[in-house]
Amino acid sequence: QVELVESGGGLVRAGDSLRLSCAASGRTFATTAMGWFRQAPGAEREFVARINWIGDTTYYTDSVNGRFTISRDSAKNTLYVQMNSLKPEDTAVYYCAARQGGSWNYWGQGTQVTVSS
Fold first, then answer.
1. How do residues 18-67 score in pLDDT, each as one tens digit?
2. Contact indicator for 82, 17 with CB cutoff of 8 Å
């Protein structure tokens, strides 16, 4: 079992920056990647970014590429996403997830990000 706890969400204005954190604990040794997903009101959950467990490979969805940066502090077992130049369409609940055995098996409770225009 892996426990994930997100933090850092809030209300910001368009153009502002925000950094989300995700603290991981438990049986993380089998984790191959960690990622961020988001779900806007009335929409399905969508992929945002992922990083492999070693931390040397990242991938982003097109809409955030160049604005968001995913990173991982292995010593603290914490995942981050630095979000710059935020837009109102980035408003969503952001979830941290851990992938084991090829599936995103573990999810955090989510943190709300609201970007006002």
1. 999 999 999 888 889 999 999 999 999 999 999 998 888 999 999 999 99
2. yes
Best CA proximity match to 49, nearest among 16, 96, 103: 96
94: closest CA among 105, 110, 81? 110
Each as own residue / partner, the long-range contacts of residues 72-79 (CB below 8 Å, 24 or more positions apart, any chain) are: 72/34, 76/23, 77/23, 77/24, 77/25, 77/28, 78/21, 78/22, 78/23, 78/24, 79/21, 79/22, 79/24, 79/34, 79/36, 79/51
Place of tokens 């995913």: 70
Q: What is the DSSP string of 22-74?
A: EEEEESGGG--EEEEEEE-TTS--EEEEEEETTSS-EEE-TTTBTTEEEEEET
